[in-house]
Design brief:
219 residues; alpha+beta; SH3 type barrels; globular
């Protein structure tokens, strides 16, 4: 059995390698907010247990065993977030910290039942894909809204990140997944966009926000 702390390392490695391709211990320690010697010690331990491939001065990587384990932790986290929103009425900005705790429960039947009650969703409340029971994950290459041009339309299907502050920002503007957006204009100076959607005819979003809104093009 892997400890909750070790699981956090595996999940962090899974996330960083998906985002950046290569990861070093310094990046990992920054993400987990631990000192470098602490991270180094844990990585060596995970290497000895066969979860992580580690060579001094080389990028870290998960072994096949480690990658599957990490994906299943992500599965538990995202299923929990979906359950909290869909069945318990939590806001999408409220669920991360709770899911961080629940993901360490070691019960396959518990999460399989949760999956069944939810109707086997493919994505979590933020549009991130939920790995299946085998740890397989189907990544979808959505476009950021920031690449669209005036007059084009798109449907919001996911977020590039789901920090609480960002989700609260979207809540204040009543912008949720499934919203159909139209690019009204783009500011040449800073590439901010004026966007329209239901009950919001002219919302201005910075380039940072537009690049974090992942969309599907509408004809």
């Amino acid at each position: 059995m892997v400890s909750p702390t070790a699981e956090n390392y595996l999940k962090a490695l899974f996330s960083l390698t998906a985002e950046r391709g290569e990861v070093n211990i310094t990046e990992l320690s920054h993400l987990l907010q631990v000192k470098l010697p602490t991270a180094n010690s844990m990585i060596k331990s995970l290497h000895e247990q066969g979860w992580v491939s580690y060579e001094k001065y080389k990028p870290l990587s998960l072994t096949p065993k480690g990658k599957k384990k990490a994906a299943l932790i992500v599965r538990k986290h995202r299923l929990t977030e979906m359950y909290l929103v869909d069945k318990m009425g939590f806001g999408w900005e409220e669920v991360h910290e709770i899911a961080e705790q629940v993901e360490h429960i070691d019960s396959t039947i518990f999460f399989d039942r949760m999956d069944e009650l939810l109707g086997n969703p493919n994505v979590d409340p933020h549009g991130s894909p939920i790995p299946d029971k085998n740890g397989e994950i189907q990544q979808k290459n959505h476009d950021p809204l920031g690449v669209f041009k005036p007059g084009e339309k798109a449907k919001l299907v996911a977020l590039a990140h789901s920090s609480s502050d960002f989700l609260k920002f979207l809540n204040r503007r009543e912008l949720l997944l499934g919203a159909e957006l139209k690019i009204e204009s783009i500011e040449n100076y800073d590439n901010s966009m004026v966007v329209s959607y239901e009950n919001h005819p002219f919302e201005t979003f910075s380039k940072v926000v537009c690049d974090a809104l992942l969309v599907e093009r509408l004809v």
